[in-house]
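Hi! If you just cloned this repository, the fastest way to understand the data is to look at a raw example. We've pasted two of them here, unedited. The first protein comes first, obviously.
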Amino acid sequence: MQLSKTEEELMNHLWKLEKAFMKDLLEEYPEPKPATTTIATLLKRMTDKGFIAYTVFGKSREYYPLVKKKDYFSKHLNGLIKNFFNNSASQFASFFTEETDLSEKELEALRSLVDKKLEKKKK
């Protein structure tokens, strides 16, 4: 199951804050801020989907993520590679390096990451 774009935006705020009440989440949005009812609806849907939970304090709820940001995006990236690049990380890497405007410094950093991973695999 995945989040809609608006749910992802809200989830990013929650990942950043780690725990938050509705008012805290609303403060994270730029003007014009979404309606409180909109945020409440999104929080309900995200709770129903199992992405977040909450602790009740009187009449207020403090929300917190149940899914780590890294895990969420890793799953989606792997799905993207599977669905659009024939499950080939090499095809994805080729597309990524050809179709993005990476600087020489960024490409060198990518090479360094790959080299380090290769060294670990050889051990």
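Ok, and the second one:
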Amino acid sequence: MPIGKLDHFSIRTLDVEASRRFYTNIMGFTEGFRPPFNFPGLWMYNGPQYPETNGVVHIIGVDLKNPEGLKEYLGDRDLSTLNGTGTVDHMAFVATNLPDMRARLAKHDVAFRERTIPSLGIHQVFFEDPSQVTIELNYPAAEAAQAA
């Protein structure tokens, strides 16, 4: 069986609510169906939910008072490793409406950096989520030129 498209990213966090706000308010995702696992978390969807989709970002909550469900399902992790992207550098999404994203980031005081790569015809915007996971959004370069 050939490997298909990437299914989702999972992020472990001590602050599920901060991640919920970020992925809804900044990224525009919606919270959707998540199986009744024995640990806190949520699944974020980018667009409609279908039975064959599992969301694009899985937020995995770490319950310090009851960590056994998560340990049993995914294994234990040192809490000091729950910052940043570790060996994964970033997650990237194709996007449109650059002015809207700039406004959202500014409204929520999220620092970001941008660059255009003319040879690829894209304009990139980079920022971090509450767990310091780096996100890259790729816009058509023409959109950046129009918004300037």
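That's it. A detail worth noticing about the second one: Residues 16-26 form the longest helix (11 residues).
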